[in-house]
TrEMBL record, chain A:
Belongs to the binding-protein-dependent transport system permease family. The keyword Membrane applies. It is a multi-pass membrane protein. This is Amino acid ABC transporter membrane protein 2, PAAT family. It comes from Natribacillus halophilus.
From TrEMBL, chain B:
Pfam families: ABC_tran. It comes from the Bacteria. Belongs to the ABC transporter superfamily. NCBIfam families: ectoine_ehuA. Keywords: Amino-acid transport, ATP-binding, Cell membrane, Membrane, Nucleotide-binding, Transport. GO terms for cellular component: plasma membrane. This is Amino acid ABC transporter ATP-binding protein, PAAT family. PROSITE patterns: ABC_TRANSPORTER_1 (PS00211), ABC_TRANSPORTER_2 (PS50893). It comes from Natribacillus halophilus. It is a peripheral membrane protein. Its main location: membrane.
Amino acid sequence: MTWDWEFAFEVFPDIISAIGITIGATVAAYFISLTLGLVLTLLRRSSFKPLSLLIAGVIEFIRMTPPLVQLFFVYFAFDMSPFVTGAIVLGVHYATYVSEVYRSGIEAVPSSQWEASKALNFSRAQTWQKVVLPQAIPPVIPMLGNYLIVLFKETPLLSGIYVLEMLAVAQQIGSDTYRFLEPVTIVGFLFLVLSYPSALFIRYLEKRSGKLPGSAEKGVKT
Amino acid sequence: MTEEAREETVETPGEDNANTIVSYKNVKKAFGDTVVLNDLNLNVNQGEKVALIGPSGSGKTTIIRMLMTLEQPTEGTIEVDGEMLWHKEVKGEFVPADEKHLRKVRGSIGMVFQQYNLFPHMTIMRNCTEAPVHVLGVDKNEAKARAQEMLDKVGLGDKVDQYPAQLSGGQQQRVAIARSLVMQPKVMLFDEVTAALDPELVGEVLEVLKDIASEGDTTMMIITHEMEFARDVADHVLFLDNGKIAEQGHPRNVLENPQSERLQSFLGRFIETN
Ligand SMILES: Nc1ncnc2c1ncn2[C@@H]1O[C@H](COP(=O)(O)OP(=O)(O)O)[C@@H](O)[C@H]1O
Ligand SMILES: [Mg+2]
């Protein structure tokens, strides 16, 4: 099959018009994974053992099954629109990974910060809110950002349940015209164009993170 | 007040009396199989300044960490202001304390740590106002005024907008002291607060502690290796050895006329090094 520029330009507008769905699904799923991920992390640290074990089990289960299978399962088991199903399933699936990122951030906060909070008589909730999370999250922002790109690249899975994101549109064009090369290449190109700058931005965040407030003025202090 | 007069007015520590604010009764603490404190009995009077000295590993930190509720005693009880730390009374029976009870008793206690433990993501001012505002419910402006006053007292009134990383160790430790002071605890605990500091920064922190000790009716329990400071500030010195109070009494007796060989050799180390 040879590359047909004319055909490529012809289908380009149709494909790019689906970019809104791709981005919308990414953002919705990302939002779910960021919030649910934090909730999972906190529940997993609950001092009530049965709860933390249950959460650990659920996380393990979700991770050990393929997202595509989860998509089909939820799509056929519940009566939700493809888009909503897709956002929820990807969001929940990646929440289990995002939760691991939060966990590493939280564990990096020294126990002495918890002790200082106790000495000042903060409640547990206040300690999380004012002391631990504000120190745990900034260093892991680049890692969290990485999952935005990962999720973005996972959205073509949603074509499996008929969400009309970019790949679904490309496939549609392909089956209508018997030309797949151009539409699929365009999809790949559009993913690259969006992912690459995001990756650069995350690399920039990585360089900046890990600095304590105020330490910049002092220069070398890390 | 002269030294002599003060000595007489201080009620005999170790005995439970109306002035007692902190009381350890038959306290045992073990980490796993290792017993680090055995049958500790100790009373501290309201306003008293107690210095805890002793070799490393003798259990000093554990004693005050239990009071701050950072460690739970294995056996025995600790009371603050007549209230048990780890138990509460429900219908005449003592049951293990819950978080609510712990927070209530914690309110009378403050602690300053060896490594300062300031909140690195907050300015100096916020380090000192966060707890008064959110724990005590003090109005924001009032909390700021109180924090400013305490920071002035420790000589750092001009650092309010800086972050901990911008201050020297001695300055950070003075902020930590101010942060604890704004909570107005009845009992303040100090765990080797100068041990992490460069030698030239030790003096400024000890001065601040002396100030607080001289003006306040705050009860202070101070773990220190600064013997001269202990002699100047303390009403009562405890020598801890191997998880037991091996010797105690007025600083002049304990520090200048040690009875046991253990204490003599312990103090001897300081004479050599100083
Ligand atoms: N969390 C802990 N787990 C196990 N052992 C501990 C713990 N904390 C303290 N210890 C042990 O308890 C003993 C007393 O320690 P500590 O109270 O810190 O003594 P000090 O402050 O006098 O140096 C030491 O032998 C120490 O190793
Ligand atoms: Mg110690």
